[in-house]
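Let's practice the habit of predicting before peeking. Look at the sequence and jot down your guess about where helices and strands might fall. Then scroll down.
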Amino acid sequence: MSIRHVNGQKVGDPISTSTKTVKAAVNEKISRGTKAIEGQVEEVSFEEIPFETRTEVDSTLPKGPEVVVQAGQNGKKKITKVYKTLKGVKTADAPTDFRGKLLKQFKDRIIR
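Done guessing? Here is the structure:
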């Protein structure tokens, strides 16, 4: 027999009245994190170091013309900044670590 509704009232018996346990209950602890997920992110940038021009006085050269003894060459520096993150988003705090590494030394331009 099945349950029917007549004027909003249940009429009849339920289809199944079984008390058979399909799956036994398992006692386990389910944890949800409440602690903020903190981490860090590194930002790497490269910066050019400009060369300088030095003028050396050479009394053996005639006045007027200039001779370039050494051509100038820019240097390069790698800058690494480490920031704190909260849930994967960078915080507004200042970097926790700041490192600079010289990759290429600059050479001055020398004129006589």
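How did you do? The mean pLDDT is 83.
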